[in-house]
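Thread amino acids onto this structure.
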């Protein structure tokens, strides 16, 4: 996340570059700063006949989004716990100070090929991570001074090894996203991205009272982001439903719908981390908590 000032310097815009899905922090930054809107076009194509085939799949820094993990677990017929253990390494997205999971590259130094790549290409292509789908686009949000809503936009990432930019195939940003099947991933991952970017902003600007979230909250965020099986047990088998106002119909849906369960998890995290009114404590629980707080403060 970076701050930038508008060209006339009359007002400051808050610009957040979401680089959790690809490491853009090198000194030789490959980001092309031109803002691309949905109808803007660019030239790019990746295919087996290109000279750089599979190079981007070696030593790559790929963060797995919640929907990536859902899709890959189903593709491989694995539980999230087994998938995380076999194919990922735990990491932190430094901008936000929050835990994430990254694909474990092969090789002793972690600079070898992706475990899902073969000579013919990606072996999980139909369920490949959103990082791979987005490439060579990056994602950013801008919030003009005085605005309440941030606007997402894209930009190009041009790495030296990639020859796809030299291809003649031209697509608009919107057409490219549709071709790559990005829309579903963006829809499912939106709450997760919002949390990471807001934490990055708080960390950069100091946040409410300059405080970081607790280690326990970070652990819960990782669970919500990576393991729907454990999240479902947490929601259904602990006192969660006794504490929060969740519609009974919604409870029935999340028993089988992983996407709906994720949205509940993201809403819960936004409430816990930022006190957003995305989910409400039951009235009796709230009264009890307030009474306990007054007692601890010595109030009568």
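Threaded sequence (300 positions):
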């Amino acid at each position: 996340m970076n701050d930038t000032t508008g060209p006339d310097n009359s007002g400051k815009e808050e610009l957040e570059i979401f680089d959790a899905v690809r490491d853009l922090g090198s000194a030789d930054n490959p980001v092309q700063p031109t803002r691309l809107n949905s109808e803007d076009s660019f030239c790019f194509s990746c295919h087996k006949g290109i000279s750089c085939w599979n190079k981007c799949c070696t030593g790559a820094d790929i963060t797995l989004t919640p929907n990536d993990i859902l899709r890959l677990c189903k593709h491989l017929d694995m539980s999230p716990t087994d998938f995380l253990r076999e194919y990922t390494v735990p990491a932190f997205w430094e901008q936000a100070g929050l835990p994430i999971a990254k694909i474990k590259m092969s090789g002793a130094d972690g600079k070898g090929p992706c475990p899902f790549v073969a000579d013919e290409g990606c072996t999980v292509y139909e369920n490949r991570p959103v990082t791979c789908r987005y490439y060579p686009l990056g994602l950013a949000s801008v919030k003009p001074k005085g605005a309440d809503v941030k606007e997402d936009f894209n930009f190009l990432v041009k790495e030296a090894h990639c020859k796809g930019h030299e291809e003649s195939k031209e697509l608009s940003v919107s057409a490219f996203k549709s071709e790559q099947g990005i829309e579903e991933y963006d829809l499912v991952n939106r709450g997760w991205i919002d949390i990471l970017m807001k934490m990055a902003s708080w960390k950069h600007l100091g946040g409410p009272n300059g405080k970081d979230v607790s280690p326990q909250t970070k652990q819960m965020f990782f669970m919500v982001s990576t393991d729907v099986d454990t999240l479902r047990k947490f929601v259904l088998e602990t006192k969660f439903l006794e504490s929060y106002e969740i519609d009974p119909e919604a409870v029935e849906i999340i028993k089988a719908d992983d996407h709906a369960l994720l949205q509940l998890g993201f809403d819960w995290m936004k409430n816990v981390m930022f006190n957003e009114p995305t989910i409400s404590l039951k009235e009796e629980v709230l009264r009890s908590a307030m009474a306990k707080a007054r007692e601890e403060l010595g109030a009568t």
